[in-house]
Write a sequence for this structure.
């Protein structure tokens, strides 16, 4: 036999020997594709029923889809007899390099997942944090949360630091407490001042009766008696009620001759061992 015939016979024998593994690989590919579609459809339904945020669910489905297809390709290649060890090693090294290069982004991604899963705030909520972020939430993405600040500017807060911050959600509850601290002069009658303030709050229909407003003496300061006023209003009406009653309390205290003194100090000028003059200052 010629060399060509020998080569052709070897090629045919090799192909015939590969037929079982080729058939197994095709079956594995078809079954794998069906199982991936079934799993993705199942997860989509579960995310929809569980009311998982659409941004999170779409991202997770994309990641799961890529992982499943990579695993399927490796399985089919292994079934065909292709060595996949080096390929897996390359993927691992590439994943490690990408992870090190994107540490900040991965932190933001993890924070976004936590925010979308546990929902400490939602779109439309007003929030403030201990790291200086405050505003109304416009959008929650995987990496960043977009907020509108009180001055009308737009803030883009990374989800990593935001998820680890102490978040004060100002919108989550139906009611919110108004609090004022007002100083009245020492020669004023505290009970009269308390009655005046209580009447102002009672006259406002947007101030809730339960819990009832409180006017408490909370400090005896250097130049005034500090009164802390606490009342409750609906969250949607908070700021108009807050500012309106602040002004009304001041006006009613003035009408009843209850002064709100400015801070005062006495400066003693001493020459030698005797006090020469005293200068009261404000």
């Amino acid at each position: 036999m010629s060399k060509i015939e020998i080569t052709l016979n070897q090629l045919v024998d090799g192909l015939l020997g590969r037929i079982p593994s080729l058939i197994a690989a095709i079956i594995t590919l078809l079954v794998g594709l069906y199982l991936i579609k079934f799993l993705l459809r199942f997860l989509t339904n579960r995310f929809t029923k569980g009311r998982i945020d659409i941004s999170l669910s779409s991202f997770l489905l994309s990641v799961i889809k890529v992982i499943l297809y990579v695993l399927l390709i490796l399985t089919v290649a292994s079934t065909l007899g292709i060595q996949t060890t080096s390929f897996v090693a390359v993927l691992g090294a590439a994943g490690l390099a990408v992870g090190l290069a994107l540490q900040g982004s991965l932190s933001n991604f993890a924070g976004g997942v936590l925010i979308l899963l546990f929902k400490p705030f939602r779109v439309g909520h007003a929030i403030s944090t201990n790291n200086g972020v405050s505003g109304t939430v416009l959008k929650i993405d995987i990496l960043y949360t977009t907020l509108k600040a009180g001055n009308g500017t737009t803030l883009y807060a990374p989800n990593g630091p935001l998820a680890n911050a102490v978040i004060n959600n100002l919108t989550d509850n139906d009611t919110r407490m108004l609090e004022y601290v007002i100083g009245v002069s020492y020669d004023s009658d505290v009970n009269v001042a308390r009655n005046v303030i209580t009447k102002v709050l009672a006259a406002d229909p947007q101030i809730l009766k339960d819990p009832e407003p409180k006017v408490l003496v909370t400090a005896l300061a250097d130049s005034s008696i500090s009164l802390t006023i606490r009342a409750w209003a609906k969250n949607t009406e908070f700021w108009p009620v807050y500012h309106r009653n602040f002004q009304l309390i001041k006006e009613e205290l003035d009408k009843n001759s209850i002064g709100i003194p400015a801070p005062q100090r006495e400066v003693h000028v001493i020459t030698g061992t005797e006090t020469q003059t005293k200068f009261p200052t404000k």
Summary: Strands lie at 126-129, 134-140, 144-148, 154-158, 167-169, 175-184, 214-220, 225-234, 265-271, 274-281. The longest helix spans residues 3-49. The radius of gyration is 36 Å.
